[in-house]
User: Fold these one by one.
Assistant:
Number 1:
Amino acid sequence: MAIKNIAVIGGGTMGSGIVTVFAMYGFQVTLAEMKTEFVQRALFGIEKSLDKLIQKEKITPLRKEETLNNIVPVIGLTSIPVETELIVEAVNENRELKLSIFKELNGRINPKAIFASNTSSISITELAQSGRPDKFIGMHFMNPVPVMQLVEIIKGYQTSQETYNTIKEMTIKIEKTPIEVNDYPGFISNRVLMPFINEAVFALMEGVSTVEDIDNVVKLGLNHPMGPLTLADFIGLDVCLNIMEVLYNGFQDSKYRPSPLLKKMVAAGKLGKKSGEGFYKYN
Ligand SMILES: NC(=O)c1ccc[n+]([C@@H]2O[C@H](COP(=O)([O-])OP(=O)(O)OC[C@H]3O[C@@H](n4cnc5c(N)ncnc54)[C@H](O)[C@@H]3O)[C@@H](O)[C@H]2O)c1
């Protein structure tokens, strides 16, 4: 199925980026948010990210205009056109919220449309029970979406091969690299990344080294662009804890137990960059 009309639900960090890339490659994109001010914030962010791409000479000012012309902002799910062929959901990481959105859309939107979720950790197979399991799939974009190459494509238990093929093709059309992953807790990216961050927090808790030096060992010795504790601050310590709990509950394996220090910092409201303090302090 050749898809032309897409709706992205949620215009936060990820939704704005997803809207940007689809619109850049000529897709008609409806951006659905809850309030006018959130739509305005999303459009402002999209313009800023397109300006950055112009500065880096990745796109021309004309392409920016064309991209913006492909975006139709709407308030509320009821304004999403019935004939939409692909829904990409990027609302907050909350199972009940996501399920309720998919259930509502399932009753209204073109029965041939594919439903995709950008969830970082919620089971695609569980979300797929909202109504059309064979046409349900995970599209896990990375942050920042216009820059990052990978899209993890997660097949739920009932996702059809046709759905997978269509989404794989779409991902190639927006010049990203699709990687097929089956639906297990944390998929691949977070199953590898989060225990790595969690282990760095255990090392800090045990006094093996300091925050700066744990990061320096990983940067200078393993050639990562940033250390795990800096990365945790950027992602949000609450998000890291939440994903560790998904891994721990999903596999029932003690190797995924969240570090008590991580739990304590989240309880203290030290969530990283967004709260002004995590492993480092921010202005
Ligand atoms: N931030 C990341 O680095 C990252 C990376 C990969 C995946 N994800 C996943 O992407 C999803 C979104 O994360 P985010 O960081 O963009 O969150 P965010 O908080 O920046 O944005 C969520 C947006 O959803 C909107 N929203 C909530 N309910 C809505 C509704 N009923 N209708 C329309 N809009 C609604 C909110 O107003 C908000 O703007 C989550 O599932 C997250 O796990 C995040």
Note: The mean pLDDT is 97.
Number 2:
Amino acid sequence: MSEKNHFDPEHLIQSGDVMKRSASVAHFEGLSDRLAEQAGDVAWQLSASRDAHQSVKLLLELSAHLVLKCQRCLGPIEYELNETRRFALFKNEASLPELEDEEDDIDCMVVTGEMDALALVEEELLLALPMMPLHDTESCHASIEAQEEEGELELKPSPFAMLSRLRNS
Ligand SMILES: [Zn+2]
């Protein structure tokens, strides 16, 4: 299982293959905190190419149907993820481009030898997921309580109002 998820970008370029894989969501342990259910699969495909400057470019396409955890009521939220990520691979830190030279939608990485596709996919999933998934106000189980709390907060005078009162006196 893990063997076939390791790949050498150079070999991928030579063969011209596109790696197409999928794994159950449960394989991505780093995601478990963010999910309400360990259900479904993550599908991805990886291909590599060499650009005009002979540097290695990697293209990763991800798609997954995930059940995220609402950060207000902890209930399930269905989430459809489709993400395309591009990487430029470098042999060492010294050959990494200066920050301002980096192209906006390309991540630069130092890679020597084989890469772990599962680890890469997990990292990109974590980056692509919303930090604070929330239900719509109408469908969230906690929305009524939350609104009540917000109402209470508004009743307290803001620290800025207090400050301006002190200044005026
Ligand atoms: Zn909710």
Note: Residues 3-135 form one domain.
